[in-house]
Specification:
mainly alpha, DUF86 domain-containing protein
């Protein structure tokens, strides 16, 4: 007989690994640049493929991390017997638990992520502004990831599977904590 609960727990462990991996790569890509960006500097480097590949990676990795966190929060809530029929309820639950700093901040991140997916801006000042917003919101996603991993470890006794990014994830969370102080 298939143990459905074990399958769900294994899936959450895999999602936690994905959260750690996404966090690590977003942090690594973001650390390649000096923030904040300016429209003038982007215009001057408008043919710098390495710069724009890094920016594309940040866009992709920010979106991927936020999507993966959303899936992980929903699945975690499900295993905690919380209402998951509406993601706003899931967000409110995790805001109350201190995992998400605020529903509003999460939604700002979602709006910034969606704008990047649908807007094809040519004004370098607006491009810089977009990436500066992502840079400002990235610590929120990373801290959310840390709190979510912690709640899964402490309350569900689940950790990332296979755990390849545990050390790097712990290091980047320490870096974020030092940076926020």
């Amino acid at each position: 007989m298939v143990d459905l609960l074990q399958n769900e727990k294994r899936y959450l462990s895999q999602l936690l690994e994905a959260v750690q991996r996404c966090s690590y790569f977003l942090h690594e890509s973001s650390s390649k640049l000096e923030w904040p960006l300016s429209g003038d500097s982007l215009w001057q480097r408008r043919k710098d493929a390495e710069l724009f590949e890094t920016l594309a990676a940040i866009n992709e990795r920010f979106a991927k991390l936020q999507d993966t966190l959303a899936s992980t929060m929903r699945h975690c809530a499900l295993l905690m017997s919380e209402n998951t029929d509406n993601f706003l309820k899931v967000l409110v639950y995790f805001e109350k638990r201190g995992v998400v700093p605020s529903v509003e901040l999460w939604q700002q991140g979602r709006m910034a992520r969606n704008m990047a997916a649908h807007d094809y801006e040519t004004d370098y000042s607006l491009i810089a502004e977009h990436f500066n917003v992502l840079s400002e919101l990235t610590p929120m996603l990373l801290v959310t990831a840390g709190h979510l991993v912690e709640i899964c470890n402490n309350e569900l006794k689940l950790s990332a599977e296979p755990g390849d990014f545990n050390d790097e994830f712990a290091t980047l969370l320490r870096d974020i904590e030092c940076w926020e102080k």
